[in-house]
């Protein structure tokens, strides 16, 4: 771009007038000077390779700051909130787990028949004073394991200081004579209690003959007895087995029940229960109920 500078003349000493040109370019003292206008200054700045936009230089140490993106700020706030909530929850949980306010003071027992609730409460005495959140169902089960009558147990905490225990007891299905006493056993052969008077218990006596009943025969008999409903079980006087496939039952009225093996025991139990509900015929009394083939039962 052509320069807009305009030369001016300043007269030195010995000149004739303020606006006259010197007669020659010899030893005169006149000086030619040039001045820049504002346009020149702007053009010069625009040509600066370090500042192509022509903006003023703020000097070293001047840093421009930009606002934090909204998404990043929201994430930071969210993470901070989550951290605070986690710390508060941890404090609440710790206070609940170790607080003496939730210490166990009362144990309630449900579902016992053979056992007395006091026996269960005595077995769980080591838990007294322990915070409820620290008491597990496995721990309750382990403490009640020595009570053979207990088959299963569930425990429920009732804040602030009560533990509710529901016991499922084993069901006795027969009496096994041992000397002068009779042992109550369940379907698994677990000995639950003893009695000296078999007539006081409405359960059949397992007949082992002159010796000890073999394990396989004992299990076959108890499996059959365990499948019978309580009303039928109460009408039996004894049970025996010549083999695992020849289980026989006796009713208190003297009738014999031919059961056979332990297969299809649920179906056999339903068929037998239905046959026993048929009104008796005095002219043709039933002496044998044969349910060994349950889909074709026979009475004679």
Q: Can you describe this structure?
A:
This protein has 300 residues and is α/β, with parallel strands linked by helices. 27% of the residues lie in helices and 23% in strands. It is built from seven helices and 14 strands. The strands form three sheets. The protein has a nine-stranded mixed sheet with strand order 8-7-6-9-10-11-12-13-14, with helices on one face. The model is unreliable at 12-34 and 38-46 (pLDDT under 50).
Topology:
Blueprint: E1 8-10, E2 31-33, H1 38-46, H2 70-98, E3 106-110, H3 117-123, H4 137-144, E4 150-158, E5 162-169, E6 172-178, E7 181-186, E8 191-195, E9 205-206, H5 215-227, H6 230-233, E10 236-241, E11 247-251, E12 256-260, H7 265-276, E13 288-290, E14 298-299
Parallel strand pairs: 3-5, 6-9, 9-10, 12-13
Antiparallel strand pairs: 1-2, 4-5, 6-7, 7-8, 10-11, 11-12, 13-14
| Estimated helix fraction | 25-40%
Distance between the termini: 135 Å
User: What is the mean predicted local confidence, pLDDT?
Assistant: 80
Indicate the radius of gyration in whole angstroms: 54 Å
Proportion of residues in β-strands: 15-25%
Helical/strand content category: alpha/beta
The tally of helices reads 7
Largest beta-sheet details: 9 strands, mixed
Q: SSE order in H/E notation?
A: EEHHEHHEEEEEEHHEEEHEE
Shape: elongated
Q: Which stretches are low in confidence, meaning pLDDT under 50 for 5 or more residues running?
A: 12-34, 38-46
The strands making up the biggest β-sheet line up spatially as 8-7-6-9-10-11-12-13-14
Number of strands: 14
